[in-house]
């Protein structure tokens, strides 16, 4: 992601609104117990599958981790601490 020089906070929030709304829709309509196969990758066991619930929890965890990284960068720039 690279923010354009002429982008505003309103622009960024507008770009985020559609995927956020779609995520909300999926969370409320999908069967959380349904299972889906994982792609072939060295970090997954062959033939492994996850439930929709586990996938959503994984996405939430990844998002929180990356938000934490962004907060560390922001703290190094402005010195403000948000958690004490």
Category by helix and strand content? mainly alpha
Task: Summarize the amount of helix as a percent range.
Answer: 55-70%
**Major β-sheet, in short?**
2 strands, antiparallel
Regions with pLDDT < 50 over 5+ consecutive residues? Answer: none
Mean pLDDT: 90
- Silhouette: extended
Q: How many separate domains make up the residues?
A: 1
User: Strands across the major sheet, in which order?
Assistant: 1-2
> Multimeric state of these chains?
single chain
Number of helices: 2
Overall strand count: 2
Kindly report how far apart the N and C termini lie: 29 Å
Query: What fraction strand?
Result: 5-15%
SSE series:
HEEH
CA-based gyration radius: 17 Å
Detailed description of the structure:
- A two-stranded antiparallel sheet has the order 1-2.
- The chain starts with 8 loop residues before the first helix and ends in a 6-residue tail after the last helix.
- It has helices spanning 9-29, 52-78; strands at 35-37, 49-51.
- The chain is mainly alpha-helical and 84 residues long.
- The protein has 2 helices and 2 strands.
- 57% of the residues lie in helices and 7% in strands.
- It has one domain.
- The model has no long low-confidence stretch (mean pLDDT 90).
